Amino acid sequence: MWSKHSPGRNLVGGSALFPLALSERLGKKILYDTQATRIQSADGSVEVDVVAGTTRSTFMARHCIVAAPAFVAAQIVKDLPSDTLHALKSIRYGAFLTAAVLTAETAPMPWERHYAISTPGRAFSTIFNQATTLREDPTNRQPGGSLMLFRGAKGAAQLMQLSDREIVERFRADLIAEFPEAASCISEIVVQRWEAGAPYSWPGRGTLQAALARPLGSIHLAGDYLEFPNMEVAARTGREAADAVRSN
Ligand SMILES: Cc1cc2nc3c(=O)[nH]c(=O)nc-3n(C[C@H](O)[C@H](O)[C@H](O)COP(=O)(O)OP(=O)(O)OC[C@H]3O[C@@H](n4cnc5c(N)ncnc54)[C@H](O)[C@@H]3O)c2cc1C
Predict the structure, then answer these.
(1) Average pLDDT per run of 10 along the chain, which is 248 residues long?
(2) Residue 69, ligand 1, Cβ within 6 A
(3) Ligand 1 centroid to residue 72 C-alpha, Å
(4) What is the pLDDT of residue 201?
(5) Is 177 a pocket residue for ligand 1 (Cβ < 6 Å)?
(6) How many CB atoms lie within 10 A of CB 31?
(7) Residue 14's pLDDT is what?
(8) Of 147, 170, 243, 245, which is least surrounded by CB within 10 A?
(9) What is the predicted pLDDT for the residue at 237?
(10) What number is the ipTM of this complex?
(11) What is the pLDDT of residue 3?
């Protein structure tokens, strides 16, 4: 997880363990595959319309923490102050394009001790080797591994015009160009597209902050777009929203 102290900390086993642990504690209180379509304050409470498949329901709540991306919050939260609505609509998102590479090496590779390798001029801009965190004992190297190839922003948006197969071939060719040793050990490459990969800042973005941070009564915004996009901010703004609910 990135944090202010980037590159932050790693969760051995994958960052998905974090929400899985939360969901175990919350149990049946979580509704999966359920989309909020309207959130509206009404007489000291909040009405939340949701749809799950073809089933529509409305929930009444004393408070609602809205942790959806900014452009979704702008769409589903009704009767927002005009400056907050404008600020939510103004948050800019850039594309992310990633590929997971499964490798089958039986010996240490040149990327072995590197967590992130910058690759200017390649189809991807960075190679991530998250497995570095698992390989603290070089005398006990297990076979196989995985890499993550990353491209962001305009470069990602351009590549995303291509099919998955074409992206895989470009990434494969450039990975082998960067590390010829990869040719013998790539088992599989899976592409993942993130059209709204991350909110990003620009000159003037700061002028939106007051409208995003203002109290909204029984509705509370949370999410990485409120600050710098990483999991620490996502968790902290969620925590701050929960604290605001408790203090009411
Ligand atoms: C490829 C990639 C790699 C990353 N790597 C890292 C990393 O290594 N370290 C790090 O710290 N951060 C990383 N990030 C950033 C991190 O994932 C985000 O900053 C973080 O997930 C943001 O959390 P969030 O809760 O604000 O938003 P999201 O994680 O986007 O959560 C928003 C949720 O709202 C849901 N939603 C949307 N619309 C509705 C609706 N109408 N009704 C109900 N639910 C809705 C979505 O399904 C989603 O689950 C990465 C991001 C990407 C894309």
Answers:
(1) 62 82 93 97 94 97 98 98 98 98 96 93 96 79 94 97 98 98 98 97 97 97 95 93 95
(2) yes
(3) 12
(4) 95
(5) no
(6) 12
(7) 78
(8) 243
(9) 97
(10) 0.98
(11) 60
Considering the domain boundaries, does residue 4 fall inside one? no
We report the CATH number of the domain holding residue 238 as 3.50.50.60
Ligand 1 contact, 197 CB (< 6 A) = yes
pLDDT at 108: 93
In a domain, 142, yes or no: yes
For residue 225, report the distance from its CA to the centre of ligand 1, in Å. 10
Distance 106 CA to ligand 1 centre (A): 35
pLDDT of residue 37: 98
Q: What is the pLDDT of residue 182?
A: 98
- Which of 224, 233, 240 is the best mutation target for the ligand 1 pocket, counting ligand atoms within 8 Å of the beta carbon and taking the most? 224
In this structure, the residue with its CA closest to atom 21 of ligand 1 is 231
Same domain membership, residue 67 and residue 105: no
Q: Is 137 part of a structural domain of the chain?
A: yes
Note down the domain range covering 143: 93-199
**Shortest-distance atom of ligand 1 to CA 192:** 1
- Which residue lies with its CA nearest to atom 12 of ligand 1? 230
